[in-house]
């Protein structure tokens, strides 16, 4: 057997890898069975389960399983099976005795929206049967009629003795035997005795068929009625709604005799009638239809279960030697939280995760398990009961609370990692100042960290390009090594890692989620947690010292948060922080003659020099690009060319940059990992030149000569023509660069992004003239160029969906991409409205319809994105109505037909079979064939964890939003032709896509 003391500092590595180590689990309920299943899944520990009862049975009745429990059941592979057993109706309705609705909430829909999982009510027997079937399938033995009588714990193992004289020995003993645990009573903490709470639950299961059909049909979801003595509730608990569970919770004196451990059932007729009479007395003042329903439910009851509610005093031990308590045996909660089964599942997964850690002793694993479990329970009780847990907190000060950091007695860092997906109850945006121990505790395990890093390298790094990936990966490994050795990692390093992990989480791919055994909802929660941790480091009372690592992290956060909900103000703050830090480090003077001479005399690390160039030019390019983008910052920029002396980064792959120098600096005709970065800088410089040349347009002073516009257009067209062949989009160039793309798959994505950025600027340059150009030959070039570039933007957005399957980045999650798509669609829609009889009007309508659907799909990914678009449409319509009050929106003077087609498209996408959305359509526009994808983009595909996410009420909510969106489009397309060209241009100039919320 394994020779390891409970407090031995020896490693756990040998224990995990050996095939013949064993755990004894006392308790054959959900806690014990789920623990056995999870240990079987994730470790080499074999389990034997021992149950007191003579056969598989439960306390009866039904329980609720919260989203955190359903998430873990999904990981056990049991979620879908349970869905076919339990009831998932959405609403919770609380009524008064008079029948009025006091509160109503779509709890399942809300839970799905926030976590990806809903809420289920299921019979205890059905839950137990599903778990037992899974246990038997993997041949985990379960023994019944086993009453534990003795526990012997020594360095060779732990031996248990049962009342029938049989014994068993294993390496660890897990007490999953409920609040009246024999494991706790006999060994772990004999003085920890459950206390009667003064409350008891009366409940019963009745067939729905015994009730009139009109009554049974009303019992959907979770229904509660408040009485003077307690709460009466009723709910369906099967998938077919054929059984109804009702219960009453109130104060009941503790009986002087009887088996109070498991409660008791009332069978005799006189006892049943007495209990029913008492319940009728409580319900005598119940009014209205629901009062009648409750009385009929009680009247049809033949067996009543009475269960006394106990609680455990706080402060008891949860482990001793080789023995550990889980679930209610350790931390029984009052049932009103509805978290008993879910918290038992969380315990099972937490223990499994800790046992995977091969660097810690068994005693330390048990200690960390108790600390983390207690912390989760305190947080949960705080969320559910507000201040009801203050007594528990005050008596539990001996525990090292994770929120204050976890340190050993000698002060060294002692922490566990937080696996990806354990952030559904995420970091608070108002988190107080934190120390290294608290922050480092949220690092994912090293294996997951490597997967996240690789995903970042394949997705957002392609458009960010600042990191020197080999040295950054080495920094990550060094940081984790310092944690493994008990040293404090650098807070700056943690900042960088959390910025990378946040980027990887928001750029999740199905492949990443499969490797992490996670879901889309968990990825979103992880993004929120990682980004908030990074921001908490920056906002800490101890400022982050200027460094290259800090600048990289700040730049990455800016790149990330620009495209994510709720960070507009923080992005501006981050930009200024980055500028001030870079200036303090004199990065803007990096390549002056003096700096170069100092490097020659003193030496330098050329990786650091190259990274500083990337950092600087990334900040500069972002500043100049937004100066000619749209929005409140348009027409202004911060970085002045005359105030810097920094060379462009070398056009070379990271592998050719070493601390001693850059081995090669390839011409721009040679593709490297930096090619797209450099051309982004070149495009940004053109934007700066445009802003310097035509401030009059942006600042509404004197209009420039049209020849100036044509000259700037020529510069942009020259930039397009001079792109290297691998960044060109014509068929011949694509054919010529096929080998380069095969070697570097990221090129296809990068060339789309470069063309997307160019055509959005061409649209912006010619937009003031495009409508007038439809009738005035002088500006006809602007009209045709603006339309051509708008169509190119929409086509490039479609190409992004094609490349999504290759590089994994989902354009539907990018705010800036969808902003430009929306503007391009507006330009085309308005052009059709002004010129309904143009030769290609029908083709443009088709493009608008396709874009409408793309925006609709993207809105499903980002509610704030759709909110921002609708806000701008509403602003447009408000202004249109003010300027043309005589127009009747409901009866427009002129109809282009697009509004009707949008109504038809909406009807098809919400009413018809999914196959109606699988239409691919090609249209001829201006002589070029452009494929319009009428099916949902591959970015809209969902992992299996998303199945069943949308409840009926949630769908209704979405439909309502889409009807509003559809109505806005229809009104806009009807009214827009009434404006003249200058008014229209003025309206578009006032569009504001800045995010209003502040969720970080």
Task: Characterize the structure shown.
With 1000 residues, the protein is an alpha+beta fold. It is built from 38 helices and 23 strands. The chain has four domains: 190 residues, FAD/NAD(P)-binding domain, CATH 3.50.50; 183 residues, 2-Layer Sandwich (D-Amino Acid Oxidase, Chain A, domain 2); 242 residues, no CATH class; 285 residues, no CATH class. The strands form six sheets. It has an eight-stranded mixed beta sheet. A six-stranded mixed beta sheet has the order 7-2-1-11-19-18, with helices on both faces. Helix content is 50%, strand content 12%. The longest helix is centred in the last third of the chain and has 28 residues. It starts with 12 loop residues before the first helix and ends in an 11-residue tail after the last helix. A hairpin with a 2-residue loop joins β18 and β19. The N terminus and C terminus are likely disordered. This is FAD-binding domain-containing protein. It comes from Cudoniella acicularis. One of its GO terms (biological process) is DNA-templated transcription. It holds the Pfam family Fungal_trans.
